[in-house]
Amino acid sequence: MFTKLKLTVLTAIVLGAAGLAAASPGGPGTDATRAERKARMLEKFDANKDGSLDAAEKEAMLEARAQRRFMKLDVNNDGKLSFEEFKAGKLGKLGKHHGRRGHGASRGQ
Question: What is the pTM of this model?
Answer without folding.
Answer: 0.50
